[in-house]
Amino acid sequence: MSIEQNLLSIKSTLPKQVTLVAVSKTKPVSDLMEAYEAGQCVFGENKIQEMVEKWEMMPKDIQWHMIGHVQTNKVKFMAPFVNLIHGVDSLKLLQEIDKQAKKNNRTIDCLLQIFVAEEETKFGLDEDELALLLSSTIFQGLKNIRVIGLMGMATFTANQNQIKKEFTHLKTIFDKLQVTKTTNCQLNTISMGMSGDYQLAIDCGSTMVRIGSSIFGGRK
């Protein structure tokens, strides 16, 4: 199957309220262009330098999502163009994104990463840290970021019940926060689900899925 066929086949299974992020990390620009020409405009990268290089070479109507773990000292490189930063897991990182967005005269959308998996390797905030962050005066003073939702990754396991439990837990946290509406926080996006579990994630309420290998093939 070609990249175009893979893409169209996946898109045909997605409900209209679900955004597809094509995870294009390590893939050459020619592969991304094949997806773009087939109608895909949202790409997810996990290394800022690689995303910057691709952004410079590719059409400017593409939306770039940073889906990897973000180091504060790298934010400035993507601040001029990034559309959405998925893995925001600290107030310090939000402050840096806000600072760099302001320098570029922009407001940058962010998702807060919530820790729902049973693996110690995954990043993210727990519910208490999330509540503290959203109620802090520092957060409320940030004018150049907008938190538009939550992101989470399930445990890497074949156990569908466990994955479902973790996705449902994230959706419950998301639903509880629907009452939180401030100028810089309006939650309408829940990003969960990847190539192996996106159908289950959608059943559990995901509105954004991150799919790489099922579109571009496995990474070398």
Calculate Rg over CA atoms. 17 Å
Specify the number of helices. Answer: 10
Q: What order do the helices and strands follow? A: HEHEHEHEHEHHEHEEHEH
Distance between the termini: 17 Å
The CATH superfamily title? Alanine racemase
Please give the largest β-sheet.
8 strands, parallel, barrel
Tell me what the CATH architecture is. Answer: Alpha-Beta Barrel
Output the structural class.
alpha/beta
Count of distinct strands: 9
Number of structural units classed as domains? 1
CATH fold assignment: TIM Barrel
Segments where pLDDT lies below 50 for 5+ residues? none
> What gross morphology would you assign?
globular
Mean pLDDT: 94
Strand content: 15-25%
Strand order of the largest sheet: 1-2-3-4-5-6-8-9
Description:
The chain has one domain: TIM Barrel (Alpha-Beta Barrel). Strands 1-2-3-4-5-6-8-9 form an eight-stranded parallel β-barrel. Helix content is 39%, strand content 21%. It is built from ten helices and nine strands. The protein starts with a helix and ends with a helix. Helix 9 links the parallel strand 8 and strand 9. It has 220 residues and is α/β, with parallel strands linked by helices.
Task: Offer a concise description of the structure.
This protein has 220 residues and is an alpha/beta fold.
